[in-house]
Amino acid sequence: MLLAVVDVNSRLLDPVRTVLGTVVIPLYVFAETPYRITTEVTESFASRGALRERNSLLERRVLELSQISQQFAVLREENTRLRALLGSRNRLGAEVLVAELTGVVPGPATLEVIVDKGLAAGVTVGQAVIDAQGLFGQVVEVSEFFSRVLLVTDSTHAVPVQVNRNGVRSVAAGTGQLDRLELEHVPITADIRTGDLLVTSGLGGRFPPGYPVGEVVRVEVDPARVYAEVVARPLAALDRSRHVLLIFDERSAAAALEESAAALEESAAALEESAADSGGTGP
Amino acid sequence: MNPLRGGWIILLSIAIAMMLAVAHLPESLPQWLGWLRPAWVILVMFYWVMVLPDRFGMISAWCVGLLLDVLRGDPLGVNGICLATMTYVTWSLYERLRMYSVPQQGVVIFALVLGADLFRNIVQIFARDGHFDWRFVLPGLVSMLLWPLVYALLRRIHSQFGVD
After folding, report:
1. Which positions in chain A touch B67 (Cβ < 8 Å)?
2. Which chain B residues touch A153 with a CB distance below 8 Å?
3. Domains of chain A, residue spans
Protein backbone atom coordinates (compact mmCIF):
# COMPACT_ATOMS: atom_id res chain seq x y z
CA MET A 1 0.00 0.00 0.00
CA LEU A 2 2.82 2.31 0.96
CA LEU A 3 4.37 1.45 -2.39
CA ALA A 4 1.24 2.60 -4.20
CA VAL A 5 1.14 5.89 -2.31
CA VAL A 6 4.79 6.59 -3.09
CA ASP A 7 4.26 5.68 -6.70
CA VAL A 8 1.23 7.90 -7.18
CA ASN A 9 2.74 10.91 -5.49
CA SER A 10 6.31 10.90 -6.70
CA ARG A 11 8.56 9.76 -9.47
CA LEU A 12 10.87 7.79 -7.14
CA LEU A 13 9.70 4.41 -8.40
CA ASP A 14 10.00 5.18 -12.08
CA PRO A 15 13.29 3.22 -12.41
CA VAL A 16 11.60 0.16 -10.87
CA ARG A 17 8.80 0.50 -13.37
CA THR A 18 11.28 0.83 -16.21
CA VAL A 19 13.14 -2.33 -15.22
CA LEU A 20 10.02 -4.42 -14.64
CA GLY A 21 8.44 -2.99 -17.76
CA THR A 22 11.38 -4.18 -19.83
CA VAL A 23 10.56 -7.70 -18.63
CA VAL A 24 6.78 -7.66 -18.82
CA ILE A 25 5.77 -5.32 -21.62
CA PRO A 26 6.91 -7.81 -24.31
CA LEU A 27 3.83 -9.82 -23.26
CA TYR A 28 1.89 -7.27 -25.29
CA VAL A 29 3.69 -8.50 -28.36
CA PHE A 30 2.22 -11.97 -27.83
CA ALA A 31 -1.17 -10.58 -26.95
CA GLU A 32 -1.14 -8.74 -30.25
CA THR A 33 -0.20 -11.75 -32.43
CA PRO A 34 -3.77 -12.63 -33.51
CA TYR A 35 -4.15 -9.17 -35.06
CA ARG A 36 -0.79 -9.39 -36.78
CA ILE A 37 -1.66 -12.76 -38.22
CA THR A 38 -5.05 -11.59 -39.52
CA THR A 39 -3.48 -8.51 -41.10
CA GLU A 40 -0.75 -10.59 -42.71
CA VAL A 41 -3.23 -13.10 -44.04
CA THR A 42 -5.64 -10.50 -45.43
CA GLU A 43 -2.73 -8.69 -47.04
CA SER A 44 -1.23 -11.76 -48.66
CA PHE A 45 -4.61 -12.84 -50.00
CA ALA A 46 -5.53 -9.43 -51.35
CA SER A 47 -6.33 -9.62 -55.03
CA ARG A 48 -4.00 -8.22 -57.70
CA GLY A 49 -6.66 -5.76 -58.80
CA ALA A 50 -7.17 -4.39 -55.29
CA LEU A 51 -3.41 -4.00 -54.84
CA ARG A 52 -3.06 -2.16 -58.15
CA GLU A 53 -5.92 0.12 -57.22
CA ARG A 54 -4.35 0.87 -53.86
CA ASN A 55 -0.99 1.45 -55.50
CA SER A 56 -2.40 4.02 -57.92
CA LEU A 57 -4.28 5.69 -55.06
CA LEU A 58 -1.06 5.96 -53.07
CA GLU A 59 0.81 7.33 -56.06
CA ARG A 60 -1.79 10.03 -56.51
CA ARG A 61 -1.51 10.81 -52.83
CA VAL A 62 2.28 11.10 -53.05
CA LEU A 63 1.92 13.51 -55.96
CA GLU A 64 -0.54 15.66 -54.05
CA LEU A 65 1.64 15.67 -50.96
CA SER A 66 4.81 16.50 -52.86
CA GLN A 67 3.06 19.45 -54.44
CA ILE A 68 2.02 20.65 -50.99
CA SER A 69 5.50 20.11 -49.62
CA GLN A 70 7.01 22.20 -52.41
CA GLN A 71 4.77 25.05 -51.43
CA PHE A 72 5.59 24.34 -47.83
CA ALA A 73 9.32 24.80 -48.40
CA VAL A 74 8.72 28.24 -49.93
CA LEU A 75 6.28 29.23 -47.22
CA ARG A 76 8.66 28.10 -44.50
CA GLU A 77 11.42 30.24 -45.92
CA GLU A 78 9.09 33.19 -46.07
CA ASN A 79 7.86 32.53 -42.56
CA THR A 80 11.41 32.36 -41.21
CA ARG A 81 12.26 35.65 -42.88
CA LEU A 82 9.15 37.35 -41.54
CA ARG A 83 9.80 35.98 -38.09
CA ALA A 84 13.37 37.23 -38.27
CA LEU A 85 11.97 40.64 -39.18
CA LEU A 86 9.67 40.51 -36.18
CA GLY A 87 12.60 39.50 -34.01
CA SER A 88 11.10 36.31 -32.64
CA ARG A 89 12.93 33.00 -32.73
CA ASN A 90 12.09 30.75 -35.64
CA ARG A 91 10.49 27.42 -35.16
CA LEU A 92 12.75 24.50 -35.85
CA GLY A 93 11.52 21.58 -37.82
CA ALA A 94 11.32 18.91 -35.17
CA GLU A 95 12.84 15.48 -35.71
CA VAL A 96 10.55 12.52 -35.66
CA LEU A 97 10.81 8.81 -35.00
CA VAL A 98 8.36 6.32 -36.46
CA ALA A 99 6.98 3.81 -33.97
CA GLU A 100 4.55 0.98 -34.37
CA LEU A 101 1.72 0.15 -32.02
CA THR A 102 2.40 -3.05 -30.10
CA GLY A 103 -0.61 -3.09 -27.87
CA VAL A 104 -3.60 -1.34 -26.47
CA VAL A 105 -3.78 -1.09 -22.70
CA PRO A 106 -7.13 -2.61 -21.76
CA GLY A 107 -9.59 -1.20 -19.32
CA PRO A 108 -12.51 0.87 -20.47
CA ALA A 109 -11.51 3.75 -18.22
CA THR A 110 -7.96 4.29 -19.49
CA LEU A 111 -6.96 5.13 -23.02
CA GLU A 112 -3.34 4.14 -23.44
CA VAL A 113 -1.33 2.28 -26.02
CA ILE A 114 2.10 0.65 -26.07
CA VAL A 115 4.50 1.54 -28.89
CA ASP A 116 7.65 -0.30 -29.87
CA LYS A 117 10.29 2.37 -29.21
CA GLY A 118 11.80 2.94 -25.80
CA LEU A 119 14.88 4.14 -23.94
CA ALA A 120 17.09 2.40 -26.48
CA ALA A 121 15.74 4.73 -29.18
CA GLY A 122 16.06 7.81 -26.99
CA VAL A 123 12.41 8.22 -26.11
CA THR A 124 11.72 10.32 -23.02
CA VAL A 125 8.67 10.82 -20.85
CA GLY A 126 6.56 13.76 -21.99
CA GLN A 127 7.30 13.51 -25.68
CA ALA A 128 4.46 14.40 -28.00
CA VAL A 129 3.13 11.68 -30.29
CA ILE A 130 1.30 12.35 -33.55
CA ASP A 131 -0.12 10.23 -36.31
CA ALA A 132 -0.75 11.10 -39.94
CA GLN A 133 -3.83 13.17 -39.13
CA GLY A 134 -3.11 14.95 -35.89
CA LEU A 135 -1.97 14.89 -32.28
CA PHE A 136 -2.17 11.37 -30.85
CA GLY A 137 -1.02 11.73 -27.26
CA GLN A 138 2.09 11.88 -25.14
CA VAL A 139 4.60 9.41 -23.71
CA VAL A 140 3.96 8.74 -20.03
CA GLU A 141 6.27 5.84 -19.32
CA VAL A 142 9.33 4.34 -20.99
CA SER A 143 10.99 0.98 -20.61
CA GLU A 144 14.00 -0.31 -22.53
CA PHE A 145 12.26 -1.19 -25.80
CA PHE A 146 8.68 -0.04 -25.37
CA SER A 147 6.85 2.99 -24.12
CA ARG A 148 3.38 3.79 -22.96
CA VAL A 149 1.45 6.56 -24.67
CA LEU A 150 -1.52 8.35 -23.11
CA LEU A 151 -4.08 9.28 -25.76
CA VAL A 152 -5.38 12.84 -26.08
CA THR A 153 -8.88 11.70 -25.20
CA ASP A 154 -7.98 10.01 -21.90
CA SER A 155 -9.87 11.63 -19.06
CA THR A 156 -6.62 12.63 -17.35
CA HIS A 157 -5.19 14.30 -20.43
CA ALA A 158 -5.40 17.94 -21.45
CA VAL A 159 -3.58 19.90 -24.12
CA PRO A 160 -3.31 23.67 -24.65
CA VAL A 161 -4.84 24.52 -28.03
CA GLN A 162 -5.77 27.52 -30.13
CA VAL A 163 -8.29 27.99 -32.88
CA ASN A 164 -6.43 28.05 -36.17
CA ARG A 165 -8.77 30.65 -37.67
CA ASN A 166 -8.31 33.42 -35.11
CA GLY A 167 -5.91 32.25 -32.39
CA VAL A 168 -8.43 31.98 -29.55
CA ARG A 169 -6.70 29.95 -26.86
CA SER A 170 -8.18 27.20 -24.73
CA VAL A 171 -7.41 23.82 -23.20
CA ALA A 172 -8.73 20.65 -24.82
CA ALA A 173 -9.41 18.02 -22.20
CA GLY A 174 -10.03 14.34 -22.84
CA THR A 175 -13.31 12.81 -21.79
CA GLY A 176 -12.50 9.10 -21.70
CA GLN A 177 -14.41 8.57 -24.94
CA LEU A 178 -12.28 7.95 -28.00
CA ASP A 179 -14.06 10.44 -30.24
CA ARG A 180 -14.69 13.36 -27.95
CA LEU A 181 -12.64 16.27 -26.57
CA GLU A 182 -14.03 19.15 -24.56
CA LEU A 183 -12.70 22.69 -24.41
CA GLU A 184 -12.41 23.95 -20.85
CA HIS A 185 -13.42 27.37 -19.62
CA VAL A 186 -14.48 28.91 -22.89
CA PRO A 187 -16.29 32.21 -22.23
CA ILE A 188 -19.68 32.36 -23.98
CA THR A 189 -18.47 35.35 -25.95
CA ALA A 190 -15.47 33.54 -27.44
CA ASP A 191 -15.39 33.33 -31.22
CA ILE A 192 -15.42 29.57 -31.73
CA ARG A 193 -17.62 28.02 -34.38
CA THR A 194 -18.50 24.54 -35.52
CA GLY A 195 -15.89 23.32 -37.98
CA ASP A 196 -13.02 25.32 -36.49
CA LEU A 197 -9.64 23.58 -36.51
CA LEU A 198 -7.86 23.36 -33.16
CA VAL A 199 -4.06 23.25 -33.20
CA THR A 200 -1.57 22.91 -30.36
CA SER A 201 -0.60 26.33 -29.09
CA GLY A 202 2.75 25.30 -27.63
CA LEU A 203 1.94 27.00 -24.34
CA GLY A 204 3.16 25.02 -21.37
CA GLY A 205 6.11 23.78 -23.40
CA ARG A 206 5.10 20.15 -23.52
CA PHE A 207 3.61 20.00 -27.00
CA PRO A 208 5.30 21.67 -29.95
CA PRO A 209 3.07 24.36 -31.48
CA GLY A 210 1.14 24.00 -34.69
CA TYR A 211 -0.01 20.39 -34.76
CA PRO A 212 -3.71 19.82 -35.48
CA VAL A 213 -5.60 18.39 -32.53
CA GLY A 214 -9.29 18.36 -33.38
CA GLU A 215 -12.22 19.85 -35.12
CA VAL A 216 -15.03 21.61 -33.28
CA VAL A 217 -18.24 19.69 -33.79
CA ARG A 218 -20.61 21.40 -31.40
CA VAL A 219 -20.77 24.74 -29.62
CA GLU A 220 -23.52 25.19 -27.09
CA VAL A 221 -24.00 28.62 -25.60
CA ASP A 222 -26.31 28.82 -22.65
CA PRO A 223 -26.62 32.49 -21.59
CA ALA A 224 -27.35 31.38 -18.05
CA ARG A 225 -23.91 29.83 -17.69
CA VAL A 226 -20.49 31.40 -17.58
CA TYR A 227 -18.78 28.99 -19.95
CA ALA A 228 -19.84 27.66 -23.30
CA GLU A 229 -19.81 23.94 -23.90
CA VAL A 230 -17.53 23.21 -26.83
CA VAL A 231 -17.09 19.65 -28.07
CA ALA A 232 -14.39 18.67 -30.54
CA ARG A 233 -13.57 15.53 -32.44
CA PRO A 234 -9.90 14.47 -32.32
CA LEU A 235 -8.36 14.38 -35.78
CA ALA A 236 -5.91 11.56 -35.11
CA ALA A 237 -7.22 8.10 -35.92
CA LEU A 238 -6.93 7.06 -32.28
CA ASP A 239 -8.47 3.64 -32.76
CA ARG A 240 -7.03 2.83 -36.18
CA SER A 241 -3.49 4.13 -36.55
CA ARG A 242 -0.86 1.42 -36.50
CA HIS A 243 2.05 3.81 -36.97
CA VAL A 244 2.70 6.93 -34.98
CA LEU A 245 5.46 9.55 -34.93
CA LEU A 246 7.35 10.47 -31.78
CA ILE A 247 8.43 14.10 -31.94
CA PHE A 248 11.83 15.10 -30.66
CA ASP A 249 11.74 18.77 -29.84
CA GLU A 250 15.30 19.94 -30.38
CA ARG A 251 15.37 22.25 -27.43
CA SER A 252 14.15 21.52 -24.00
CA ALA A 253 11.78 23.99 -22.44
CA ALA A 254 14.52 25.23 -20.11
CA ALA A 255 16.82 26.11 -22.96
CA ALA A 256 14.02 27.97 -24.71
CA LEU A 257 13.23 29.94 -21.54
CA GLU A 258 16.88 30.85 -21.08
CA GLU A 259 17.06 32.01 -24.63
CA SER A 260 13.96 34.15 -24.41
CA ALA A 261 15.30 35.70 -21.21
CA ALA A 262 18.57 36.52 -22.98
CA ALA A 263 16.61 37.99 -25.89
CA LEU A 264 14.59 40.14 -23.51
CA GLU A 265 17.75 41.44 -21.85
CA GLU A 266 19.24 42.20 -25.23
CA SER A 267 16.19 44.13 -26.36
CA ALA A 268 16.09 45.99 -23.05
CA ALA A 269 19.72 46.96 -23.52
CA ALA A 270 18.99 48.06 -27.07
CA LEU A 271 16.06 50.15 -25.89
CA GLU A 272 18.18 51.82 -23.24
CA GLU A 273 20.86 52.51 -25.80
CA SER A 274 18.40 54.03 -28.22
CA ALA A 275 16.87 56.06 -25.40
CA ALA A 276 20.31 57.33 -24.51
CA ASP A 277 20.97 58.06 -28.16
CA SER A 278 17.79 60.02 -28.64
CA GLY A 279 18.44 61.80 -25.34
CA GLY A 280 21.91 62.74 -26.55
CA THR A 281 20.99 63.96 -30.00
CA GLY A 282 17.59 65.33 -29.15
CA PRO A 283 16.97 68.99 -28.70
CA MET B 1 11.79 -37.60 -12.62
CA ASN B 2 10.41 -34.09 -12.64
CA PRO B 3 12.67 -31.81 -10.61
CA LEU B 4 10.54 -28.68 -11.05
CA ARG B 5 7.40 -30.71 -10.42
CA GLY B 6 5.66 -28.85 -13.19
CA GLY B 7 6.45 -25.41 -11.83
CA TRP B 8 6.88 -24.11 -15.34
CA ILE B 9 3.28 -25.08 -16.11
CA ILE B 10 2.10 -22.84 -13.27
CA LEU B 11 4.29 -20.01 -14.53
CA LEU B 12 3.19 -20.49 -18.11
CA SER B 13 -0.50 -20.55 -17.20
CA ILE B 14 -0.10 -17.32 -15.25
CA ALA B 15 1.83 -15.71 -18.11
CA ILE B 16 -0.97 -16.67 -20.49
CA ALA B 17 -3.55 -15.29 -18.07
CA MET B 18 -1.62 -12.00 -17.96
CA MET B 19 -1.54 -11.94 -21.73
CA LEU B 20 -5.29 -12.46 -21.86
CA ALA B 21 -5.63 -9.69 -19.31
CA VAL B 22 -4.04 -7.21 -21.72
CA ALA B 23 -5.16 -8.63 -25.07
CA HIS B 24 -7.41 -6.07 -26.66
CA LEU B 25 -10.61 -6.49 -28.59
CA PRO B 26 -10.84 -5.61 -32.27
CA GLU B 27 -11.47 -1.89 -32.71
CA SER B 28 -14.69 -2.55 -34.56
CA LEU B 29 -16.39 -3.75 -31.38
CA PRO B 30 -17.93 -1.18 -29.03
CA GLN B 31 -15.79 0.11 -26.19
CA TRP B 32 -18.10 -0.98 -23.34
CA LEU B 33 -17.31 -4.64 -24.06
CA GLY B 34 -14.11 -3.93 -22.14
CA TRP B 35 -16.16 -4.01 -18.95
CA LEU B 36 -16.91 -7.68 -19.53
CA ARG B 37 -13.28 -8.82 -19.37
CA PRO B 38 -13.01 -11.62 -16.78
CA ALA B 39 -10.24 -11.42 -14.17
CA TRP B 40 -8.09 -14.05 -15.85
CA VAL B 41 -5.17 -13.83 -13.45
CA ILE B 42 -7.40 -14.24 -10.41
CA LEU B 43 -9.14 -17.24 -11.99
CA VAL B 44 -5.88 -19.03 -12.74
CA MET B 45 -4.29 -18.18 -9.40
CA PHE B 46 -7.41 -19.27 -7.52
CA TYR B 47 -7.12 -22.68 -9.11
CA TRP B 48 -3.46 -23.17 -8.26
CA VAL B 49 -3.78 -21.93 -4.69
CA MET B 50 -6.81 -24.08 -4.04
CA VAL B 51 -5.35 -27.24 -5.53
CA LEU B 52 -1.68 -26.80 -4.62
CA PRO B 53 -1.58 -24.49 -1.59
CA ASP B 54 2.04 -25.42 -0.86
CA ARG B 55 3.27 -24.40 -4.31
CA PHE B 56 1.82 -20.95 -4.62
CA GLY B 57 1.94 -18.50 -1.75
CA MET B 58 1.33 -14.87 -0.95
CA ILE B 59 4.81 -13.68 -1.90
CA SER B 60 4.57 -15.09 -5.40
CA ALA B 61 1.05 -13.69 -5.70
CA TRP B 62 2.35 -10.25 -4.73
CA CYS B 63 5.14 -10.49 -7.31
CA VAL B 64 2.68 -11.43 -10.03
CA GLY B 65 0.55 -8.48 -8.93
CA LEU B 66 3.53 -6.15 -9.25
CA LEU B 67 4.15 -7.32 -12.80
CA LEU B 68 0.47 -6.85 -13.56
CA ASP B 69 0.68 -3.26 -12.26
CA VAL B 70 3.51 -2.47 -14.63
CA LEU B 71 1.69 -4.18 -17.47
CA ARG B 72 -1.55 -2.29 -16.97
CA GLY B 73 -0.06 0.99 -15.77
CA ASP B 74 -1.79 0.89 -12.40
CA PRO B 75 -0.11 2.42 -9.33
CA LEU B 76 2.61 -0.01 -8.21
CA GLY B 77 1.48 -2.49 -5.58
CA VAL B 78 -2.27 -2.20 -6.06
CA ASN B 79 -2.69 -5.49 -7.88
CA GLY B 80 -0.04 -6.92 -5.55
CA ILE B 81 -2.23 -6.26 -2.53
CA CYS B 82 -5.36 -7.50 -4.30
CA LEU B 83 -3.77 -10.76 -5.37
CA ALA B 84 -1.96 -11.36 -2.07
CA THR B 85 -5.17 -10.82 -0.08
CA MET B 86 -7.07 -13.04 -2.45
CA THR B 87 -4.40 -15.72 -2.10
CA TYR B 88 -4.57 -15.45 1.67
CA VAL B 89 -8.35 -15.93 1.69
CA THR B 90 -8.15 -18.87 -0.69
CA TRP B 91 -5.25 -20.36 1.18
CA SER B 92 -6.99 -20.26 4.55
CA LEU B 93 -10.15 -21.78 3.09
CA TYR B 94 -8.71 -24.25 0.60
CA GLU B 95 -9.84 -27.40 2.42
CA ARG B 96 -13.40 -26.15 2.50
CA LEU B 97 -13.26 -24.81 -1.04
CA ARG B 98 -12.22 -28.19 -2.42
CA MET B 99 -15.41 -29.65 -0.95
CA TYR B 100 -17.59 -27.13 -2.73
CA SER B 101 -19.20 -27.82 -6.08
CA VAL B 102 -17.75 -25.93 -9.02
CA PRO B 103 -20.61 -23.35 -9.23
CA GLN B 104 -20.21 -22.72 -5.49
CA GLN B 105 -16.53 -22.02 -6.04
CA GLY B 106 -17.67 -19.64 -8.74
CA VAL B 107 -19.63 -17.67 -6.16
CA VAL B 108 -16.51 -17.40 -3.99
CA ILE B 109 -14.62 -16.15 -7.05
CA PHE B 110 -17.33 -13.58 -7.64
CA ALA B 111 -16.81 -12.26 -4.10
CA LEU B 112 -13.01 -12.20 -4.50
CA VAL B 113 -13.03 -10.45 -7.87
CA LEU B 114 -15.62 -7.97 -6.64
CA GLY B 115 -13.49 -7.14 -3.61
CA ALA B 116 -10.37 -6.73 -5.73
CA ASP B 117 -12.17 -4.55 -8.29
CA LEU B 118 -13.75 -2.40 -5.60
CA PHE B 119 -10.34 -1.80 -4.06
CA ARG B 120 -8.80 -1.02 -7.44
CA ASN B 121 -11.64 1.34 -8.24
CA ILE B 122 -11.16 3.27 -5.01
CA VAL B 123 -7.42 3.54 -5.62
CA GLN B 124 -8.08 4.73 -9.18
CA ILE B 125 -10.39 7.43 -7.87
CA PHE B 126 -7.61 8.72 -5.61
CA ALA B 127 -4.82 8.29 -8.11
CA ARG B 128 -6.38 9.54 -11.33
CA ASP B 129 -9.46 11.54 -10.29
CA GLY B 130 -11.62 8.86 -11.82
CA HIS B 131 -15.26 8.53 -11.01
CA PHE B 132 -17.14 5.60 -9.58
CA ASP B 133 -18.77 3.40 -12.16
CA TRP B 134 -21.19 0.67 -11.14
CA ARG B 135 -20.19 -1.44 -14.09
CA PHE B 136 -17.19 -2.63 -12.09
CA VAL B 137 -19.30 -5.58 -10.85
CA LEU B 138 -19.39 -7.01 -14.38
CA PRO B 139 -15.90 -8.62 -14.42
CA GLY B 140 -16.85 -10.53 -11.25
CA LEU B 141 -20.02 -11.85 -12.83
CA VAL B 142 -18.26 -12.87 -16.03
CA SER B 143 -15.47 -14.55 -14.04
CA MET B 144 -18.06 -16.50 -12.04
CA LEU B 145 -19.74 -17.72 -15.21
CA LEU B 146 -16.42 -18.65 -16.81
CA TRP B 147 -15.04 -20.48 -13.78
CA PRO B 148 -16.43 -23.98 -14.67
CA LEU B 149 -14.70 -23.75 -18.06
CA VAL B 150 -11.40 -22.53 -16.64
CA TYR B 151 -11.58 -25.17 -13.92
CA ALA B 152 -12.12 -27.99 -16.38
CA LEU B 153 -9.30 -26.75 -18.61
CA LEU B 154 -6.80 -26.27 -15.80
CA ARG B 155 -7.62 -29.64 -14.26
CA ARG B 156 -6.97 -31.26 -17.59
CA ILE B 157 -3.61 -29.49 -17.90
CA HIS B 158 -2.84 -30.23 -14.26
CA SER B 159 -3.22 -33.97 -14.60
CA GLN B 160 -1.74 -34.10 -18.10
CA PHE B 161 1.57 -32.53 -17.08
CA GLY B 162 1.71 -34.02 -13.60
CA VAL B 163 2.04 -30.82 -11.65
CA ASP B 164 2.13 -31.59 -7.94
Report:
1. 20, 23-24
2. none
3. 2-43+91-151+240-252, 46-86, 158-234
